[in-house]
Every structure is written in C-alpha cells, then in structure tokens.
Automatic annotation (TrEMBL), chain B:
NCBIfam families: dctM. It comes from the Bacteria. One of its GO terms (molecular function) is transmembrane transporter activity. This is Sialic acid TRAP transporter permease protein SiaT. It comes from Thermovenabulum gondwanense. The lineage of its organism: Bacteria, Bacillati, Bacillota, Clostridia, Thermosediminibacterales. The chain crosses the membrane at residues 50-70, 82-105, 111-128, 135-155, 167-194, 215-241, 247-263, 284-302, 322-351, 363-384, 404-429. Keywords: Cell inner membrane, Cell membrane, Membrane, Transmembrane, Transmembrane helix. It holds the Pfam family DctM. Residues 6-424 form the TRAP C4-dicarboxylate transport system permease DctM subunit domain. One of its GO terms (cellular component) is plasma membrane.
Automatic annotation (TrEMBL), chain C:
It comes from the Bacteria. The chain crosses the membrane at residues 14-35, 47-64, 85-104, 124-143. It is a multi-pass membrane protein. GO terms for biological process: C4-dicarboxylate transport. It is found in: Cell inner membrane. GO terms for cellular component: plasma membrane. The gene is teaB. GO terms for molecular function: transmembrane transporter activity. This is Ectoine TRAP transporter small permease protein TeaB. Pfam families: DctQ. Keywords: Cell inner membrane, Cell membrane, Membrane, Transmembrane, Transmembrane helix, Transport. Belongs to the TRAP transporter small permease family. Residues 23-153 form the Tripartite ATP-independent periplasmic transporters DctQ component domain.
Amino acid sequence: ACGGKNNAGQQQQQQQQAQQNNQPKYTLQLAGAYSLNADTPRAKATKKIKEIIEQKSNGNIKVELYLDSQLGGDRETLESCQAGNIAMVSSTTAPQVNFIPKLAIFDIPMLFDNLDIAKKVLTGEFRDKLAAEYEKAGFKLLLMVPISYREMTAKKAINTINDLKGVKIRTMENKYHKEFWNSLGANATPLNFSELYIALQQGTVDAQENPYDIILPNKFYEVQKYLIHTHHIAFIHTVVMNKNLYDSMPDDYKKVIDESMKEVSEYLFNESKTQNEQMLASLKEKGMQVIEISQDVKDKMKEAANKVADMVRKDVGNDIVDELMKAIEAAKK
Amino acid sequence: MAIQMFIILLAGLLLSIPIAVSLGLATIYPGIMNPHFAGSIQFVIRNMVSALDSTPILAIPMFILSGDIMTKGKISEKLFNFFAYFVGNKTAGMPIAAIITALFYGAISGSGVATTAAVGGMAIPFLVSLGYDKVYCAALVATAGGLGVIIPPSIPFVTYGVVTGVSIGSLFIAGIFPGILIGLSLMVYAYIYAKRNGEDKEKILYKFNSLRAKGFITVFKESFWALLAPVIILGGIYSGIVTPTEAAVISVFYSILVCLFVYKTLSAKNIMDILIGTVKSYSPIVVLLSLAIVFGRILALLQAPVALRDFIVMNFAGNRFLFLLVLNIILLILGMFMDVGPVIAILAPMLLPSATAIGINPIHLGVIMVVNLAIGMVTPPFGVNLFVASPLVKEEVMKIGTKAIPFIISFAIALFLITYIPAISLILLHQ
Amino acid sequence: MKVLKWLDDHFEEYILSLLLALIACVMMLQVIMRYVFNSSLSWSEELSRYAFVWSAFLSIGYTIKKKTILRVDTLVEILPKGIKNTVKILVSLIMVVFFAYLLINSIPTVNKIFISKQESPALGIPMYLIYTSTILGFSLAVLRSAQSAISNIKELVKK
Ligand code: NA
Ligand code: NA
C-alpha cells in the first residue's frame, strides 16, 4: 500500500547512507497531542519549527511532525522523549509536572495579570532555573511561551461566586486544579478528555476550563453557552528535546536549533496575541456569550489561589515559589 | 518496512501463531532491523502499557461482566421473552430483535467492542436456546456491534471531529440514518438466512406458545425489572448522571441487585464464578487491543499513512466516484488487518482537503470513514468485534468471521448507498 | 506440592477476578460520590485504569494456560497430523522466544522509568509500579508458553 516518496524501506536506507550523501544527518521526530490541521497558533508554530530548522540546517536536520496524538498522548510521548525514542515533544507544562515536580508552580492560579508579564518571567533569569530542572529530568528546554489562559465555559451564566456553587466542572487529573475549583464552591470533576464533549452534551458535567485554542477546535461552543473570562491559569506552551541527543549534536547544529526556536518563540507569542482576539471573536460568532468576571469573583479566586499556593509550597518547597513570585514582581515593574 | 510488517502478521496468522503474538512480532520487527528506529522494543513495551491506560477501554470488561450477570441471572432471558411474546413466531423474529437491541445499545455505548460485548452477552445464549447455530449468532452480534460507532454517541466520530475540525454534534446527527439503514440491511440478511436455512420451529413455537399461554400481564411482570435495565442505562447517560463508560458499571450493579434481591436467581456465592467467567471472556482481548494501537503508532513512525495519502491523492484526487471507491477499498483492506481507529485519526485530516476540493462534504466523509471502520471490526482475520464474540461462544475467530461474510456484504451494500447518496447522512442537517 | 498445583491452576484466575471486582467497585463508588454526595474522587479513574493495566499483562499467561489465546487455526487444522504437531511445537517455541525477548527488554524499560521518578497525576504513585506489570506478565507468559511447549513435545514423543 506504500507507493509514495516516503517509502519506509527507502527511509531506512537514507539513514544508513546519511554520512556519504547529502541526506539529512539528523532526523528529529516532534510529537504533540494537539491538532496540526487546526488553524491555531500552536499548529502554525509547529509547522514553522520544521520549516526553519530544515532551512537553516541546509537540510542536514530533518524534522518529522507527529501531531494529533499519532504517537500517543502527552504523558506517553514525554516518557518516550525522556527515554530517547522520540527526539522532541511539544506540550504545555501541565503534563510535564509528573516528570518535573517543580513545574507545579504553574498550577497556582491567578499568577500572571497579563501575558506580557508571563513572557518576561519566562525569558528572564527564572527561565534558566527552570531549564536546570528540565535537565535534571533528561530534557533540554527549547521553547517556553505563554500563549493564552485557561478560561471557564459553562452551560449556565456565572456572574457571582454563588453561581459557581455545585457546578460540576471538568478538570484535569490535577489535585491543585481540583482544590482551586472546590474551594470556590464548584464541584471539580476529573474526567478523561476524550469523553469531555459527550459529557458536556449529556450534562454529566456542566462546565469545563480550557484555552480558546482547545475550546474552538473541539467545538465545545456546541454544548456550552457561556465563556467566563476567568484567565485563571496561563497556558504555557513548550518544546523539549531529549537532553542526551541535544548534547551529542555538533555545536553548529545546536545553534541552528536554538536560533530557530528563538525565532518561533517570538512568532508564537505575537501570533497568539492576535489570534486569541480572532478566536474569541469566532467563539462569539458561534453563539457563546462572554462574561467578564467581577472584582468580587476575582478576589475570591485569588483567595482560592493562595490556598493552592500553600499546597504547592508544601509539595515542592518554598524556594522555587518565592523565586517565581519575585520574578513576577520584578516583571511587573 | 510497513509491507514487511503486514507480511509477518499474515504469515504468523497462517501458521496459527496466536494473533497477539503475530501482531507483536510485526510490531517489534522494524526496531530489530534498524537499531536507530524510534519505534524500538522499549518504545513498544512502554506503549503497550500506556495504550491500555485509557478510561473508555474499561467499558469492555464491565459490559462483558454485566452481560454474564444478566445471562446467569436470567435477566436477558426475561428481556428477550418480552420481545418473543410479540415477534417470536415470525420468521427471524428473534435474530431481528437482537439487531434492534444492538441499535439501542449503540445509542448507549460509543464503541463497537462494548456494544458487541453487551449485546452478545445477553442475546447469544437466548438465541442458542431457541436452536440457532451459535457461530451464526456470534457473527450476527459481532456485525451488529459495529452499530455502536455509527449510532451516536461514538468515539470515532469524536476523533474525526477533533482532527478535522468538523462539528462533532453534526457528525452524531449524520450517523443516525446510516446506522438505521445498516441495521435494516442486517435484518434483511437475517430474514433471508432464516428463510433459506430454516429455523427450529419446534423449539421456537414451544417457547412462543408457552409465553402466550402465560398471557401478556405475567410476561410483562416477569420481565419488568429486566426491561428497566436498558431504561436505567440509557436514562443514566442521557440525564447526565454517568458517562458512557460509567454506564457499563451501572449495568453491572443494577443486574447484580436485581438478580440477588428481586429475581433471586443468583446468590452471593455465584458471584466469584461469574467473575471468573468474565475473566475468561475478556482476557484474550486486552493485550490484542493494546498491540493494535502500538502497531498503528509504529506504522505512523514509518510514515506509512503519509505514503498512503500521497498514493490516493496523486492517483485519484480528480474523480469523485473513483476517489470514494478507492478510499473505501483501501479502508476495507486496512480494516482486515488492523484497528482502523488510529488510521482515521491520521488519514482523515490529510485526505480532507482533496475530498472537499472535489465537492465531498466533510461530514459525509466522516460518516464514510466510520462506517468503514465498523466493517473493519468484523472482517477476518483481524476484527476486534470478532475477538470479543469468539470467547463468548468458545469458537474460533475465523469460523465466526467466515459466517459473518454475508452480514459483511449487507453492511457493504449499505456502505455503498451511504457513500453515493450523501443525503442519507446529511438530510437531518439540512433542516 | 498441593499448594504449587493450586497456584498453577488458579493463580492468575483469582487475581484477575479480584482486579475486575476492584475496578467495578471503584468506578461505582465514583458515580455514587459524584451524584449522591456531589463530590468527585480524583483517584478513582486512575486506580481503575492501573488495575486494568495490571490485569491485562497478567492475562497473557492465563490465556496461554487456558488455551483461550486467540489464533487462526483454519490452515493448520487441515495439515496431516505429523506436520500439525511439529507446527504446534514450533509455534510454542516461537512464543517462548517472543515473550522472553519482551521480558528481557521490559527490565531496562521499567528501570528507565524507575530512574525518572515519574509519578501518576492523581494518586502520585510512582509510574514504575504500573510498568512492572510487564515484567511479571511476560515472565508468566514465558512460563506458560514453556509449559505448553513441553506438553506438546511430550504428546509427540508418546505417539
Ligand atoms: Na454509539
Ligand atoms: Na478487520
């Protein structure tokens, strides 16, 4: 059944002959669980990574994209990256917490007032500290960009903190997220993402929380009426690489990868900014009603966030949390 | 390399190497041949575990368990008694009732295997008791089980919607008529089979007359709690109390309670035996399912789906009739050897642009692909529904697969109509 | 000896049955907690999934032992008896080698995950505990395939 150019047998030969011919010297797989075909900033940035690296390396580095969970979900592909089977994985920080516990700091809600502050924090000194944590787990941190916020959607309007009472909101399997929503009076319900659409449709859960670029392609607007601008957790997109593989590459190739990622970071951040507006507009167009949260709700959310922060401190130590807070204060200035 | 994998799989199957082992050998082959290949043996082992680390898959053992309880506790018998009271004396009345049950269960579960497990556990023992050949019953249920992914809700439709950006709600609606059409075409064959092969009229009429002698009120009273089972399960899902996966476990506990305390057909000490029986039925399936997923991932790493896409697009993209025909044939062939679920996830977004370019509606394309997937579940030698049905009747996979061929043909006729008459899928959406 | 015989006959069966019962009870508890007590458990889904992973790998040996492992016998059944028996022995030897190969490779696989200290999202269980199911599962599969190979050979010698 395989007639095309990318015949598997040929591909294997390519690798063997790589040294003699002008064939790529490195073939890097890049796996991700999000959709490559959706018109989202993440999808565009991912295509750009391939394009820029291949061009800058004069074809010496080939990047193969495996998105849409072709090689499995985030946890599975991160595991394969750590073990050295998959070269690169593109995911948010959330699934990486299982490998790098200190990343739990980003599960503290209400950290960043806007994405510019987040960007400053994640490009400054603090980022180097994080990169060191990634290295301890065997990952090279190549890209780290805050692209949007997790927002709440619900089938009923949430205007006051009372409206949240008893609302069954689907969360990830994450104890911090669960604590946050429960202490706001909601009923956090961890559920498998693959069942979420059906669960929202049938009312097993009333609400969920995800950024625009998940709400839109997964069509949650078909089953949710309200979009509540909670901005509760920044959605931080990353690309990581197997550290041993990165270290084993010649310096000029490392430079190609680093520079390409830097370029894509800028692109992803700017593209997200403009496209977040567009995505919001099209969610409205699809019939979602947007609710801006009141100061009172915001204050209650900050209170709940403080509780989560204490939990995180207990789990990963005060140092990293304090440093993060310091970096945020500095970035605000 | 992908072709070599298929050859190893086929050779293994022919040699009567267990299907899971044949699939496993094919899956580890590229990693052994090329030590630099990303899909190494360790990749395979890790993915065998993580492929099973999924919530919807839990519905399979749960539906088999509830089916076993319903059978041993005589709930399914009472449920079918109720149907038999009305249609038991008609030609193929009870096999058709089983297909209707599959349509109903299709509206509960989102997967083909869960539907096969649930309906098979209830219907097969009953049909066999009426004198129908058990291999025929298994073939019927395995084919009808495919309705689980066509009638909404459906996990493959969700997958298709997510990877292509097509409305999942619309896909669900588009699946309703094709599902009913397929159900009807299966009923037609069940009728032809009964006409041609005859039925054990003596057993059937004995059963029918004894039910009629009891009178409607008694039959209804006896079957009341059994009839309530699907009501509770469907109600549980549609009122949003449970997810489709959790519905399976609700049916387990509902049937245990009814059998222990209402019908008193089971006692606590039967439960261990039922558990062991269920373990016997589902244990042959699980590792196979996980390997089917890993097999798909290795093929993806070999870029086989890309090559396939290029092949279709380069040769057939211009002609709508040919494009759909070739797409169907390729999906059917792939379906013979593997679980097409992952292939849909990979192929659909790549084929969509060329399909829409020649005027094929994306929702229609989704329906076509999912119907193909449903057929693939029952085509021998590799069909997940066959694997579920086989232990239920303790018969060989190929035997059931062979017996299923006329059902598959009816299914394929329905697929042909669905493919070339887009309105069947789209009419409910144009209102 | 009696204990060994009992274990040989029922070890997998009982563990698998208990895991099945555990999955059912935990999932039911989750529904009750969410619907009746309006508070969801975060660990239930994970626990049932991991119990299922364990039962999946334990079930390989069980299906070999009980001869319920699925295969396509059509072609081999029509072969003459002598050849058929040879094929049977060959197949069981292939199975021994296959599962032994998986077993040997599952040890470093699990070790890597052990070193990585990866934890599960909800329960915080070290992930290597879930992956250890492969080592035990493949060991039992090797054992059961070897048993069936020996019994196939004995059968051939007897005739
Ligand atoms: Na369904
Ligand atoms: Na098939």
